[in-house]
Amino acid sequence: MSIHSLNTYTPRATAEPPSTARLVCRQLMDLELEDLRSGALWKAVVAEFIGCFFLVYFGVGAGLCGPDEPPPSLVEVTLSAGFFIAAILTALTAVSGAHVNPAVSLGFLVARQCSFVRFVFYVIAQSAGSITGAALLRAVTPESKIGNLGLLLPPPDVTTEQALMAEFMITFLLLFCIIAMVDSGRSDVKGSVPFIVGLVVCVNIFYAANISGGSMNPIRNLGPAVIQGNMDKQWIYWVGPLVGGAAGSLLYDRVLSVARTPADLRRSCLSRGPAESCDTDLDRQAGVREPLMEAGPLPAKPTSRMVGSLERVDTGSEC
């Protein structure tokens, strides 16, 4: 067949309807484009930038001290980090879901509660916020107190593999708990979810502080590393948290979630409505409603919870 004939070719009227896979892919692309055009997305991106700016500025700044001063104790550093996480999650949850951590964003992405477009822009904003926060912190801190600007590195007696596994495990626990607490099928979670997340952060730091530093967040180390010009072993603080967070999220979401059946979870990906409302025009046009139910048709409107919010109850608002 010539190029000309390809350009002028029109399918026969009796052509088969689009396949299930093509319909699902088309719906996914429509949802990604809808999220990209949403004004709420850009407000959420700004919120992630601000959250990560504050995380590095205050989180790292709380541990800086001069060479002749006693360093903050492990308890002080741990409580400072946990309380900060509880505060910033409370402030930003309704805006962006308050990820302030690429590992959290990836965890929601693999749990199909966050669009890929949102994930990409979140990570860019988080990284920029981290570097900006570290730059400002260095500028306003007396030279005698800067030290290594809070840069985390494994101690000399800790191997690379041990530090990597520590980061994997603590981020696994963090995402496992977060996804569990936003499981819409549960009614037994009481109290403040941000505060509980802060407690998980405290537990993780108590465990890993003397092994890897207890980062569980790639951007916690990114800003200080860039500003100090020391990228040695920084891959540990990306690979460990990202893989651990994705694994923890997948384990709870796919195996332990009580929200819906596995088929319903697939169908409700990025949904703003309940799984029962997933009937779409594409389904009816193609006449493949039942196969699409199993393959995962995606309705057009995600809830605030389904784009990665820590809110457990759908509010109907966009985030």
From TrEMBL:
Keywords for this protein: Cell membrane, Membrane, Transmembrane, Transmembrane helix, Transport
CC annotations in GO: plasma membrane
Predominant localisation class: membrane
Regions that span the bilayer: 40-60, 80-98, 119-140, 163-182, 194-215, 235-252
Protein name as annotated: Aquaporin
Family membership noted in the UniProt record: Belongs to the MIP/aquaporin (TC 1.A.8) family.
Keyword Membrane: yes
Topology versus the membrane: Multi-pass membrane protein
Gene3D superfamilies, alphabetized: Glycerol uptake facilitator protein
Species this chain originates from: Batillaria attramentaria
Localization of this protein: Cell membrane
Keyword Ribosomal protein: no
Record region (Disordered): 289-319
Matching Pfam families: MIP (PF00230)
Stored PANTHER family: AQUAPORIN TRANSPORTER, MIP17260P
